[in-house]
């Protein structure tokens, strides 16, 4: 823990030094390490602001663009982070930091999207589970069960599969396989 405290103090000392340099020379490129120091301390808004201001003077400063992208990423502004990283990689496709951050952004974006979709599906399931099943068994078909299963309405699909088994449907082996898959939690 003391090491973290020492590291924070070191970063704060670096920040003070960088700010002093910028006060003497506002066109200095020291804005890039200043932004990165802000980011490392978790001062993301400051990191973003310093990067944007510095990039107005030095638009081609790639490490500053990476620092800005990292601050956006840490703030979960993935769209903005991606735009900065794509700019860097257009100019320097071999930039390893940019390549790594690109992969991190893509992973985070996929996870964020999957989480949103799962939350929406859970909400729909809580609100509407079984509501479409009106007791009219004309819709109790293998095809309807497959559709419900693919859409994530497992309980409704299971209900239809059971009803089809009770009716003596000729696809009992297929239905049994699907019920086993649903009970195992593997839905395709």
Q: Could you characterize what this model shows?
A:
By secondary structure, this protein is an all-alpha fold. The protein is built from 9 helices and no strands. It has helices at residues 2-24, 31-41, 44-57, 62-74, 78-91, 96-128, 142-150, 154-166, 172-183. Mean pLDDT is 82; it is low at 127-132.
Termini gap: 47 Å
* Rough outline: rod-shaped
Output the structural class.
mainly alpha
Tell me the radius of gyration.
27 Å
SSE pattern, N- to C-terminal: HHHHHHHHH
Q: How many domains comprise the coordinates? A: 2
Query: Ranges with pLDDT <50 over ≥5 residues?
Result: 127-132
How does CATH name the architecture of the largest domain?
A: Alpha Horseshoe
CATH superfamily of the largest domain: Tetratricopeptide repeat domain
Biggest sheet, in brief? none
Number of E-state strands:
0
**Residue fraction in strands:** under 5%
- The CATH class of the largest domain, by name, is Mainly Alpha
Quickly count the helices.
9
At the fold tier of CATH, the topology name of the largest domain is Serine Threonine Protein Phosphatase 5, Tetratricopeptide repeat
Helix content: over 70%
> Could you tell me the mean pLDDT?
82
How is the secondary structure organized here?
Layout: H1 2-24, H2 31-41, H3 44-57, H4 62-74, H5 78-91, H6 96-128, H7 142-150, H8 154-166, H9 172-183
Helix pairs in contact: 1-2, 2-3, 2-4, 3-4, 4-5, 4-6, 5-6, 7-8, 8-9
């Amino acid at each position: 823990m003391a090491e973290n405290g020492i590291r924070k103090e070191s970063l704060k000392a670096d920040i003070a030094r960088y700010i002093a340099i910028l006060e003497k020379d506002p066109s200095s490129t020291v804005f890039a390490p200043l932004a990165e120091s802000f980011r490392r301390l978790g001062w993301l808004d400051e990191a973003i602001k310093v990067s944007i201001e510095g990039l107005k003077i030095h638009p081609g400063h790639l490490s500053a663009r990476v620092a800005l992208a990292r601050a956006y990423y840490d703030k979960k502004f993935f769209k903005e982070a991606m735009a900065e990283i794509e700019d860097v990689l257009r100019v320097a496709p071999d930039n390893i930091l940019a390549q790594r951050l690109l992969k991190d952004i893509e992973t985070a974006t996929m996870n964020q999207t999957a989480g949103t979709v799962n939350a929406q599906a859970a909400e729909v399931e809580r609100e509407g589970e079984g509501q479409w099943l009106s007791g009219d068994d004309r819709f109790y078909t293998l095809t309807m069960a497959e559709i419900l299963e693919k859409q994530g309405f497992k309980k409704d699909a299971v209900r239809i599969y059971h009803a089809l088994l009770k009716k003596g449907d000729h696809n009992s082996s297929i239905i049994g396989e699907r019920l086993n898959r649903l009970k195992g939690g593997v839905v395709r």
